[in-house]
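FORM 7B: Structural annotation worksheet

SECTION A. Query
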Amino acid sequence: MSTFKMSRRQALGAAAALPLAGGTATVAPAAAEMKGPMMAQAHRFMLGGFEVTAMMAGTRTVGDIQTIFGVNVPAEEFAAVSAENFIPADRAQFFFTPTVVNTGAELILFDTGLDPEGITGALAAAGYTPDQIDVVVLTHMHGDHIGGLGGGATFPNARYVTGQAEFDHWAAAGNEGFEANVRPIAEKLEMIGDGGAVASGVTGMAAVGHTPGHMIYMIESEGQQLAITADTANHYVWSLAYPEWEVRFDADKAAAAEARKRVFGMLAADKVPFIGYHMPFPAMGYVETRGEGGFRYVPASYQFRMDPA
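SECTION B. Predicted structure
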């Protein structure tokens, strides 16, 4: 009598054929429904004794992007830099990131997004309601920073803080967004200048150029620091990495370039993290010097999220 030995490959093939031999076809499961892109709306961490929450109040894709960034550089250079950074040269994803700082005494909101619906939705995702906001700080008065004010109706219990130079410019500009959103709260605005305090541990710093009175804010608690850089740089490559590249939305392009070099040079030297309003969400990172006058954006990971050892 001969002995038949089946190889492993033959055994697997025979097993696969069994359902067919039994007359029952194997039906593949239906593919899951495509859900589309999804992104978290809130990112919270501790900074010393303060609790900081970056919130995405909106995002959109924008095309024909060199009409906005790098308008003073050749298209070939723009395309090459984009390719080096693994991003398309013809479009970008814009993010709008207001930030809430809970000092333990006050809930401070920096900027308000495009509209009341966006900021109230972002606050809800972060676990807040608009009536809980104690202070609203306006870094500058472009529409995507003041649109959520709703003419003062959105934050019924807040006091408001902004730069004096910024308010004076827009008050004389005849701007529709300013008239609808900021003018109604003019009497409630507390005006500060370079070095002015919003609260203990929250200090304003002039960074003009993007607008005539654009300001950033330094947050400090228990020896830890964080900068709210607003629109000092509007993109992590085409603006931050190349501070001399001109941005269409900068009112004074030379002053804006100098502000980028000064602010991000300081943050790089002191290794201070920052939240940039238009950086890729959750919009927080570090910056290091790169070459002559340039920078590299280093996204934050778990530096402020680790449990105690």
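SECTION C. Observations
The CA atoms of residues 209 and 254 lie 7 Å apart. Residues 253-270 form the longest helix (18 residues).

SECTION D. Sign-off
Analyst initials: ____
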